[in-house]
Amino acid sequence: MRMLSLLLLVGCMEPAPPYDLDVTSRVYTGERDIHVRLVDSTGTEVIHHEWFRFERAFTYGVLEPDRRYKLDLFLDLNGDTRCDTSEPLWRIDILDTAGPVAIDLDTAGRAVDGCAVFGPN
Prior knowledge:
The chain has a single domain (17-118), classed as Immunoglobulins (Immunoglobulin-like), CATH 2.60.40. It has one helix and seven strands; from the N terminus they run αβββββββ. The chain has one helix at 2-12, and strands spanning 19-24, 33-40, 45-53, 57-63, 69-76, 89-94, 101-104. The longest helix has 11 residues, at 2-12. The chain starts with a helix and ends in a 17-residue tail after the last strand.
């Protein structure tokens, strides 16, 4: 009985920082790499231009409480590892984190400009 009470208590607790950043998509998947950059409100790069095969979802446990972030992503359609304006690009503001953040790329607005944050082409 004591173990069951402990499991119920742990299951009801709020998540502790660092919080998860979950990114999902059903449309933008498959044989493409997604490039990720995350910068906090002080200008510190939390994720410095990482890329990997995008298979519907990924998670980073990096968000600190009460901070703002800028998340930049692009889907590398031609496989050249460089961002260009013909590829899907997102620039997402994350405001004052107080818990895990979930982003659905299928509903998030795409950016028309922002490749410069990923370095020279």
